[in-house]
Specification:
With 661 residues, this protein is α/β, with parallel strands linked by helices. The protein is built from 17 helices and 26 strands. Among the domains are: 139 residues, Fumarate reductase/succinate dehydrogenase flavoprotein-like, C-terminal domain (Methane Monooxygenase Hydroxylase, Chain G, domain 1, Up-down Bundle); 142 residues, Flavocytochrome C3, Chain A, domain 1, CATH 3.90.700.10. It is 36% helix and 16% strand. Strands 2-26-25-12-20 form a 5-stranded mixed sheet. A hairpin with a 5-residue loop joins strand 9 and strand 10. It is found in: Cell membrane. It catalyses: a quinone + succinate = fumarate + a quinol. One of its GO terms (molecular function) is succinate dehydrogenase (quinone) activity.
C-alpha cells in the first residue's frame, strides 16, 4: 500500500486550525428513538403565533418548494425566492432516475437500518450518523406524501409501486416515474407551494437573485436581492432565513448542472460567518454523455437507472477501439465492472464506476473520438436487455432517456451502444449544519444539496431527491420551530446599520464589476477556472497538483478583478453582470475546495489521492487522521481560512474499509 503524503506542517501556509466543532442538537438516546425524541423535545409554536412569524426561503427546487409549502400550510408568513422565471424550472427536474425509500415492498431484506447502513458505507464513512439515520427513517413518509399529491410512480403487476436498484446497494428500493422522477416530484412540490400562494401564506418572488445575507447582532434577519429584470436592489427582512439553493458543481464549468446553478447564496452566507463543510467533496457521475468539443457549456446526465439493465464494457484490445462495437465479438469485450466487482457488477457506487471508467480510458481502451490524447468514453450496452425483455419493455422503462441520447448524439441507442463518461454532478459539501439543519449563524438554515450533512464523500444514486424532500416536508418544519418558538422577534428596520451595510455592499460590488472595463468575459474566466479544477481537483488529485491549482486560481482571481469586461448596465436584464457575480464567488470557492482537498491526505469516496491507495489501486482512507467533517470559516482573507474539525463518531455502524467485490 502507498502512503507518501506530506506532513500537515507543510500546509500551514494555506490555513490555520480553529477550535473543534461539536453538534449537540441530536438527543443522547438510541439512534432508532432519536428523531422521535427530538420532535418531542423541540418547542411548539401555537397557530396564532405562527401568523406573526416571517420566514424567507431562497430556492424553490424540491427542498425549497416543499419547505415553503409545508411552512405556509402551518400558518407562517413565507417569502419564497428563485432566480428562474418559474419554480418549475428548478434543476431538481434533472434528477430523473428515482427516489429511495425503505418500504421493502419487494421483501428483499430492506429496512430503515439497511438504508442507513448503505448510505453511510456509500459515503465512505464520512457522513454524520445521526442525520443519515433520520433520513432513512423519514424516507417512507416521502413516498406516501408524493402519492397523495398524485405523483405518477410506476407500478408493478399487483398494483404496488414498483422499485428498481441503484448503485451501491443489493436491494430494490428506488421508486420512479419512468425517467422523469425529479420532474414529477417537483410538479407535486410546486403545486403544493402554489396552493399556499393562492391561500396567501406564501409570497413568490421569481427572477430574484439573492446577493447578500442580512446579519443583525450575529443573527440572520433577511436577504438582499436583485430583481433580474429591472436591476432593482431590494431588502427583504424576516425572523429566519432558509437557503435551499442547491449545489456548486458549476465551479467546474462543465457539469451536469443547469448553467444557472451557482454558489452565490451559500458563499455570501459563508462570508458572513456560516461554516462551509467538506467543500472538496464533489460527486463525479459515471453515466454522462462524453464531452464532444470546446463549444460545450454543459454536459448531459444519462440516469444511473440505466445501469440496472445496461452493461458497461470496453474492448479488451486497444486496437479494437475504432471498430463498430457491434462488430466486436463477446469474447473480445471487457465487462470490467462485472469482472472486478462481481457482487455488485454494474451497480457499484458512482465513485467506483467513475474511477474505473477513467482507468480504462487511461489504459488506452476508451471509445469514441479522441479528446486530447485519449478517447474519453465507455460503452453502455442494452443489446442483452432488449433481447431478454423486448424493445417495448425497455422503451417503457427508459424511453425518454433513449430519446434524449439520440437527439444529442445522433445515434440510436436501441441499435448502437451508448457512449458514456464521468462528469461533475452533485456536491456533497455545502454549508455546515447541525442536527436541526441550522448553520453556524443563528437563524440561518440550509436544506437539501445546499448543506453538507447526509452523503459523506459520495452520494448514492436516488438519494438527492430523498434528502431534498425529507428536509423540506418533514425535518425542517419540525426543527425550525424550536428556533421560532422564541418569537415573536423584535422587528428590524430597513435603516438599521447592518441592513444598510448589506445593501451597500451589494451595490458597491455591482459597480465594481461594471467599472473594471477590461478585455475578458466572465465566461472566459469561468472556463479557465473549470479546466484547472477538473485537471487538479477532479477524479484524481495529488499534493503537487493541488498546490499548483491554488497558485493558478489565485493568479486567475487577480486577473479577474483587473481585466473583467461586463457589458450593459445594472438597471436592466444583464446576464453578463449576473455571471460576473457568480464567477467571482466560484473563484473563491475553487481555491477553498483545493485547500480542503490538499489538507485531506487520504483517498475517500470519489476523492482519490494518488499518494494514498491500496496495493490493488483502490482508495485508502486514514480513519485515524481524517474521520471528521472539515468545517471552514471565512476570516476576511480568502487565502487563509480557519479549519474547524467535527469528529465523526460511529456508534451504530462499524467503521471499516469499503468493499463491493
Amino acid at each position: 500500500m502507498t502512503d507518501t503524503l506530506n506532513d500537515t506542517d507543510t500546509l500551514s501556509e494555506y490555513f490555520t486550525d480553529g477550535t473543534p466543532l461539536v453538534d449537540t442538537r441530536a438527543p443522547d438516546v438510541d439512534i432508532a428513538q432519536m428523531w422521535t425524541q427530538a420532535q418531542f423535545d423541540n418547542a411548539l409554536v401555537n397557530p396564532a403565533n405562527r401568523r406573526k412569524l416571517d420566514v424567507i426561503i431562497v430556492g424553490t427546487g424540491l427542498a425549497g418548494a416543499s419547505a415553503a409549502a409545508t411552512m405556509g400550510e402551518a400558518g407562517y408568513n413565507v417569502k419564497a425566492f428563485c432566480y428562474q422565471d418559474s419554480a418549475r424550472r428548478a434543476h431538481s427536474i434533472a434528477a430523473q432516475g428515482g427516489i429511495n425509500a425503505a418500504k421493502n415492498y419487494n421483501d428483499d431484506g430492506d429496512s430503515t437500518y439497511r438504508l442507513f447502513y448503505d448510505t453511510v458505507k456509500g459515503g465512505d464513512y464520512r457522513s454524520r450518523e445521526t442525520n443519515v439515520y433520520r433520513l432513512a427513517e423519514v424516507s417512507t413518509k416521502i413516498i406516501d406524501q408524493c402519492v397523495a399529491q398524485g405523483v405518477p410512480f410506476a407500478r408493478e403487476y399487483g398494483g404496488l409501486l414498483d422499485n428498481r436498484s441503484f448503485g451501491g446497494v443489493q436491494v430494490a428500493r428506488t421508486f420512479y416515474a419512468a425517467g422523469q422522477t425529479g420532474q414529477q416530484l417537483l410538479i407535486g412540490a410546486y403545486q403544493a407551494m402554489e396552493r399556499q400562494v393562492a391561500a396567501g401564506t406564501v409570497q413568490e418572488y421569481t427572477r430574484h437573485e439573492m446577493l447578500e445575507v442580512v446579519v443583525v447582532d450575529g443573527v440572520a434577519r433577511g436577504i438582499i436581492t436583485r430583481d433580474m429584470m429591472t436591476g432593482h436592489i431590494e431588502t427583504h427582512l424576516a425572523d429566519v432565513v432558509v437557503l435551499a439553493t442547491g449545489g456548486y458543481g458549476n465551479v467546474f464549468f462543465l457539469s451536469t448542472n443547469a448553467m444557472g446553478c451557482n454558489v452565490t447564496a451559500a458563499w455570501r452566507a459563508h462570508r458572513k460567518g456560516a461554516y462551509f463543510g467538506n467543500p472538496c467533496y464533489t460527486q463525479i457521475h459515471p453515466t454522462c454523455i462524453p464531452v464532444s468539443g470546446e463549444h460545450q457549456s454543459k454536459l448531459t446526465l444519462m440516469s444511473e437507472s440505466l445501469r440496472n439493465d445496461g452493461r458497461i464494457w470496453v474492448p479488451k484490445r486497444a486496437e479494437d477501439c475504432d471498430k463498430d462495437p457491434r462488430q466486436i465479438p463477446e469474447e473480445d469485450r471487457d465487462y470490467y465492472l462485472e469482472r472486478i466487482y462481481p457482487a455488485f457488477g454494474n451497480l457499484v457506487p458512482r465513485d467506483i464506476a467513475s474511477r474505473q471508467a477513467k482507468n480504462m480510458c487511461d489504459e488506452g481502451r476508451g471509445v469514441g473520438p479522441k479528446v486530447g490524447d485519449f478517447r474519453r468514453g465507455v460503452y453502455l450496452d442494452f443489446a442483452a436487455a432488449i433481447e431478454r425483455m423486448g424493445r417495448s419493455a425497455v422503451e417503457a422503462k427508459y424511453g425518454n432517456l433513449f430519446d434524449m441520447y439520440a437527439r444529442i448524439t445522433g445515434e440510436d441507442p436501441y441499435q448502437v451502444p451508448m457512449r458514456i463518461y464521468p462528469a461533475v454532478h452533485y456536491t456533497m459539501g455545502g454549508l455546515w449544519v447541525d442536527y436541526d439543519l441550522q448553520t453556524s449563524i443563528p437563524g440561518l438554515y440550509a436544506v437539501g444539496e445546499a448543506n453538507f450533512s447526509d452523503h459523506g464523500a459520495n452520494r448514492l444514486g436516488a438519494s438527492s431527491l430523498m434528502q431534498c424532500l425529507a428536509d423540506g416536508y418533514f425535518v425542517l418544519p419540525n426543527t425550525i420551530r424550536n428556533y421560532l418558538a422564541k418569537g415573536p422577534f423584535e422587528k428590524v428596520a430597513e435603516d438599521h446599520p447592518a441592513v444598510v451595510e448589506a445593501e451597500q455592499s451589494v451595490r458597491s460590488r455591482i459597480d465594481r464589476f461594471l467599472s473594471i472595463n477590461g478585455e475578458r468575459t466572465p465566461d472566459s474566466f469561468h472556463r479557465e477556472l473549470g479546466n484547472v479544477m477538473w485537471e487538479y481537483c477532479g477524479m484524481e488529485r495529488t499534493d503537487a497538483g493541488l498546490r499548483k491549482a491554488i497558485d493558478l486560481i489565485r493568479g486567475l482571481r487577480e486577473e479577474f478583478w483587473r481585466n473583467l469586461k461586463v457589458l450593459g448596465t445594472a438597471d436592466s436584464l444583464n446576464q453578463s453582470l449576473e455571471k460576473a457575480g457568480r464567477v467571482a464567488d466560484f473563484l473563491e470557492l475553487g481555491e477553498l475546495m483545493c485547500i480542503d482537498a490538499l489538507h485531506r491526505r487520504e483517498s475517500c469516496g470519489g476523492h482519490f489521492r494518488a499518494e494514498s491507495q491500496t496495493e490493488d489501486g483502490e482508495a485508502l482512507r486514514h480513519d485515524d487522521e481524517f474521520a471528521y467533517v472539515a468545517a471552514w470559516e471565512f476570516t476576511g482573507d480568502a487565502d487563509r481560512p480557519v479549519l474547524h474539525k467535527e469528529d465523526l463518531s460511529y456508534k451504530f455502524i462499524e467503521l471499516k474499509q469499503r468493499s463491493y467485490k
